[in-house]
Amino acid sequence: MSEGGFPYRPRGGQERLVDLVSAVCDARNHLVVESATGTGKTVCALTGVLRSRRQKGSKLLYLTRTNSQQRQVMFELRRIDNGKHFGVALQGRRNMCPLAQSDEGLEGGNPEELSKVCSERKARVLKGEEEACPYFANTMAADLGLVTRYLRSELPTAEEFSAYCRDLRVCPYEISKMHVPAADVVAAPYIMFFDGFIRHNLLDWMGSTLNEIVVVVDEAHNLPSYARELKSSRLSEMTLRLSETEIDEFGNPEIAEGICLRDFVALLRNILDRAVEEYLIDEDGVIPQSFLEEELMFATGATSHRLKGMLSQVINYGEMVRDARRGAGRLPRSFIHRVASFLVFWHALEEGTYVKLVVKSDVMALEAYCLDSSLACAPLRECRSSIHMSGTLKPLEDYRISIGLPSETLMEEIPSPFPPENCLVLYADDVTTKYEDIERDPTIVNRISEHITELLEGCRRNTIIFYPSYATMKRISGLVDDSLDDRRVFREDRSIGQSQLMEVVTGFKNSSGTAVMHAVAGGRVSEGIDFPGEEMEVAIIAGIPYPKPTARHRALQYFCDIRFGDGWTHAVKAPTTRKLLQSIGRLIRSETDRGLAVVLDRRAVHFQDSVSATRSIELVDDAREFFS
Ligand code: SF4
Fold first, then answer.
1. Which residue has the higher pLDDT, 494 or 520?
2. CA of 165 to the centre of ligand 1 (A)
């Protein structure tokens, strides 16, 4: 390594990664890099950017998906050059606004709503009404020298700083914001960059333009789907129901001759029912481009022009509700406003970039689903540099194209520094979870469950079974559980919150050598939780986790065919490969970890270019031999 700053004795690949990041920043280029989990990507990226910054003077915005990844950024920053680089950890008001946490009326507010509440409360404080936000009033009155010294010397995480401010009864959000201009490094969640409104504010606080900052995207394999979701929008049956409650409370005005607001909402409910009846197959269905507008015009007898007039009336009503709620100290929320904004958005959608769907999850909804990840990611191209890192980013070219990075972007793989013989991947070719095959021969499900049971009996180590979907998990895990006697069984449940999930995971980890967990590839267990040492030694992948061929997914594949010329690779193979590698990647987190992955699906052969698996006809014998 050419210079100091790196706080540890570098292990294999780390020097290369630091030098790469630094060189890419110097060249104002972009970097897409796959480097195995556990190789210290966070500290390498920080060191590389800070080294380049020494000469060029730019700010680093480090984006993370989860709060635990953000904490890691601050922990590493404290160690680099003995903590001399100033960094601030930002989170949204939902986590950092003490008023929102203590006032029930503000509970559950989204970023936009809490931002409005905050501006209004601060304005009232500045007019002398201190009780509007005592935390802001205290912040204005306090001598912040002590707080600044704490921030600079301790480089606290957002959680630590919030706790520190709670004792002083000052606002951590406002104080963090005040210190952003002086920070070399700002750690923030994805939303603060990819949401245009929040990004605009953040850059303002940083005193920087896009071409003056370096952005690091951590766990970047999440970005393409995150970006599509961010630009998508839904109108659910629930929002329509809550709109009717709003009308009960705030009145039912006429929005066009002979049509009152309640009629309009009822009409939308009917149209949603018709869309469900006509287009929903299984969990979603594509609806024709102008279906909603035509239905509305037919039912109201309105022209397209008159319909627009009605929508502006509905938006005005929504504004009135927001103001009334804000005036009463509640969240400035209006469901009617949401309905009208959705309809305006829906009407203006670009065909080809969005698909219009009717969907059924917990409730029925209309959804405008964004197919193009590069829409939300466009600002990355304007940044001085961007660094995209993950342990599972291959195929790198697919990632680059999907988020719209320029062709000169550097793409690199840093080989895993861990001994390759510590991880063995086997596959069985007498089973599959392919839908058509199981339909033809339902006994395949029993054979999968027999393989799992034999492995659990023959290899008594902590094991996680990753299924391709919750439905498959339900079908197979019941058979497996029936045949287990003395193993403790845990289960990933998508309906539980993060803290409950962590209790489940902790129970699994603590049952060393005896526990079994049923989880889903691509779910929370396979994506963000480490299982070092004996906490998990066997991963059974019970079926290749291909995306379900829903209408949404077929539209995405078609979009990728048109845009990139290969929808299969971009929309099917690449995300499936990443899910496989994420699940297998749970096994090896350090040089001393050993782990066995068993793929129970003959289609594993299609992934040999990225997941090198050995065919096995004696799974238990091969597993025993590996561990012996
Ligand atoms: Fe919340 Fe701070 Fe804004 Fe007051 S000033 S509303 S405490 S974020």
1. 520
2. 12
| Residue 385: closest CA among 56, 87, 83, 66 | 56
Distance between CA atoms of 401 and 12, rounded to whole angstroms? 29
Q: Is the CB of 296 under 6 A from ligand 1?
A: no
Q: How confident is the model at residue 1 (pLDDT cuts 50, 70, 90)?
A: very low
114 lines ligand 1 (CB under 6 A): no
Q: Residue 144: enclosing H or E segment and its boundaries?
A: none
| Structure confidence by residue, pLDDT tens digits, 257-282 | 889 999 999 999 999 999 999 999 98
CA distance 496 to 528: 16
Q: Is residue 544 within 8 Å of residue 611, measured between CB atoms? A: no
- Locate the ligand 1 atom nearest the alpha carbon of residue 133 and give its number: 4
Q: Are 455 and 624 in contact (CB under 8 A)?
A: no
The string of DSSP codes covering 256-281 is ETTEEHHHHHHHHHHHHHHHHHHH-B
- What is d(CA 192, CA 202) in angstroms, rounded to the nearest whole number? 7
98 lines ligand 1 (CB under 6 A): yes
Whole-model pTM over 0.85 = yes
| pLDDT single digits (tens) 481-500 | 888 777 899 999 988 887 88
- Residue 578, CB half-sphere, CA atoms under 13 Å: how many? 27
- Domains located in the chain, CATH noted: 2-93+156-229+374-414 (3.40.50.300), 232-370 (1.10.275.40), 420-627 (3.40.50.300)
